[in-house]
Design goal:
By secondary structure, the protein is an alpha+beta fold. It contains 7 helices and 5 strands. It has a 3-stranded mixed beta sheet with strand order 3-5-4, with no helix packed on it. It is globular, with a radius of gyration of 17 Å.
């Protein structure tokens, strides 16, 4: 990474990227009154719905993995070296299989790896500030924010090369939004 590359900033008090580095500004339009009150790419989910928290827990929190977490140290150390870039799966003859189950994200077996598409809302600074970090109780927000940060972190390591971004944007996968460029 060079000096111009934005770094993934890890803090429980602020979003993991600065506003100028957000890759989705759909919620900014909402705040300016130019959009509906729904979660971008989820037209049936109101941002003011009582079900938003439940949706986020289901969408990004790997419940079973969280239960196993205290014991995972026996299998492997928590290190980014265990998250290979996307192109390496082709080298190992693994097919990328889309899953919406966050508990299967980056789980692989012979010949395939399961990957959860990156939710667009996690690319919005506004979403992090208004819905993941502020409002509500910290006890409710912390596990969701940690899961969101973990999912972002996994993509930070999966997409290390421009070729990885092209793989992630293949029409049959659509792991990250098509509008994102390598320069971003």
């Amino acid at each position: 990474m060079d000096a111009k590359t934005p770094k993934l900033v890890v803090s429980e008090a602020s979003p993991p990227f600065r506003k100028q580095h957000q890759l989705d500004n759909g919620l900014d339009d909402l705040l300016q009154g130019n959009s509906s009150n729904v979660l971008p790419t989820y037209p049936r989910l109101s941002l003011h719905s009582a079900g938003l928290k439940d949706f986020l827990v289901e969408d990004i929190c790997p419940a079973k993995l969280n239960q196993l977490a205290p014991h995972l140290w026996m299998c492997s150390a928590p290190s980014h070296t265990n998250i290979p870039p996307l192109h390496s799966h082709a080298v190992h003859n693994r097919t990328i299989v889309l899953t919406e189950d966050p508990g299967l994200h980056l789980v692989w077996e012979t010949g395939r790896i399961f990957i959860k598409p990156l939710p667009t809302y996690l690319l919005s600074h506004t979403f992090w500030v208004d819905y993941l970090l502020n409002g509500g109780s910290a006890q409710d927000k912390k596990p969701v924010a940690q899961a969101a940060l973990g999912l972002l972190r996994s993509y930070f390591y999966c997409i290390r090369h421009e070729s990885d971004l092209r793989i992630a944007q293949q029409p049959h996968l659509n792991l990250v939004p098509l509008g994102i460029t390598w320069k971003q």
